[in-house]
Design goal:
This protein is an alpha/beta fold. The chain has helices at about 10-20, 25-35, 50-60, 100, 125-130, 140-155, 175-185, 205-215, 230-235, 245-255, 275-285, 310-320, 345-350; strands spanning about 1-5, 60, 65-70, 75-80, 90-95, 105-110, 115, 130-135, 165, 200-205, 220-225, 260-265, 290-295, 325. It has a ten-stranded mixed β-sheet. A two-stranded parallel ribbon has the order 1-2.
Length: about 350
């Protein structure tokens, strides 16, 4: 059975054509179903035929998985999404209040998972401890966005998420086809209408797939860097054994648009003045911005974030060297919804105990 949340306008038109619909009728049908998925009014034009809608009711699954929501006092909401095979992934709806995002309106971003678990084993990440379980289908990724959007809509009918980041559970470039499939559905102007420039795909540095991503979508790329000596990078990110920093830097240099470099600040490990200088040197000549993320409590109790003062000093060193760097204060830390804290099924098991 097809799933509505995995169908682009083209796929819906083909479905209708399969029932003998004329071009106009097929387009009207697609428009109705895309609007329904995104919970918006279909704008004008002819209505979808009853025969097609009945066929869709039989052959296109529109159900969303069951989700439990838990809210952080800072406005962040973490969803545990229960998939049909019993797997659980987590999705986070992040609220950036107008006062903190330099815009006139609150901004909402959905952080989606692309896999159940993850094979990459980054040491500061709860998802990495789960190991790889399976890839998500494109519709399971889109469904996470739909669940978050409906949650927001129930709170205030005028609100909808404007941005999407693939920074939840899993390495998105290890499930590239489904990630691109989900982007294809989410960007549909008559559906969710999330423009690719408002989508960011994150990677720990799967170098060969970065070029493929550049070629196949206009979505932004974020790269987890965290350290600039091969040995210390390998200690944090096992993938660094496979692709050297030189290879990674060359792939970043080939990007057709600004790349976001993620630097998780860990006290005593990568927060020194010398490391800020080294990072500034790495950035020289690249079209990049840096996101500094103070470490969130994770699997290794001994690893701690630097003080806010130290984080600011690191940011200032970068700024003084001409590097654009934002210090990201944590969202959803109290509910385990911040970067590196998504634990899926293990959280459910621990909560039952
Ligand atoms: S940080 Fe990302 S790539 Fe690394 S283990 Fe966690 S989910 Fe996987």
């Amino acid at each position: 059975m097809d799933h509505l949340f995995g169908m682009t306008e083209r796929a819906l038109i083909e479905f209708a054509r399969g029932y003998g619909a004329a071009a106009g009728g097929a387009r009207a049908f697609a428009k109705t179903l895309l609007a329904r998925a995104a919970m918006r009014e279909a704008d004008g034009g002819s209505a979808a035929s009853r025969v097609l809608l009945e066929a869709a009711a039989r052959e296109i699954d529109e159900a969303l998985p069951r989700a439990e929501a838990i809210a952080d006092p800072d406005g962040t909401v973490r969803f545990a999404i229960h998939l049909a095979d019993g797997a659980i992934v987590e999705t986070v709806l992040i609220e950036q209040r107008a006062s903190t995002n330099l815009r006139k309106r609150d901004r909402f971003t959905v952080c989606v998972s692309s896999q159940v678990g993850c094979a990459r084993g980054c040491v500061f990440c709860e998802t990495g401890r789960l190991g790889f379980v399976r890839n998500l289908a494109a519709w399971e990724i889109v469904a996470q966005f739909a669940i978050a959007a409906r949650h927001l809509r129930a709170r205030d009918a005028s609100l909808s998420p404007s941005n999407l980041v693939f920074m939840g559970m899993g390495e998105p470039l290890d499930n590239l086809e489904a990630v691109l499939g989900a982007i294809g559905v989410l960007r549909e102007p008559r559906g969710f209408a999330v423009g690719e420039r408002r989508i960011t795909v994150s990677t720990v540095g799967i170098v060969p797939r970065m070029d493929e991503l550049y070629a196949r979508t206009r979505a932004n790329l974020a790269v987890s860097l965290h350290a600039l000596e091969e040995k210390s990078r390998i200690a944090l990110l096992p993938i660094a054994r496979k692709f050297s920093l030189a290879q990674l830097r060359a792939a970043i240099a080939r990007a057709p648009r600004t790349v976001l470099l993620q630097w998780t600040l860990i006290a005593g490990q990568n927060d020194s003045d010398a490391q800020a200088e080294q990072l500034a040197e790495f950035c020289r000549g690249l079209d990049v911005r840096v996101n500094l993320i103070p470490l969130n409590p994770g699997p290794i109790a001994a690893q701690r974030p630097p003080t806010l003062e130290q984080c600011r000093a690191f940011q200032k060193r970068l700024a003084d060297a001409g590097v654009r760097a934002l210090l990201r204060l944590p969202h959803g830390q109290e509910i385990g919804g911040a970067c590196g804290q998504l634990a899926g099924a293990r959280r459910a098991t621990e909560q039952r105990r």
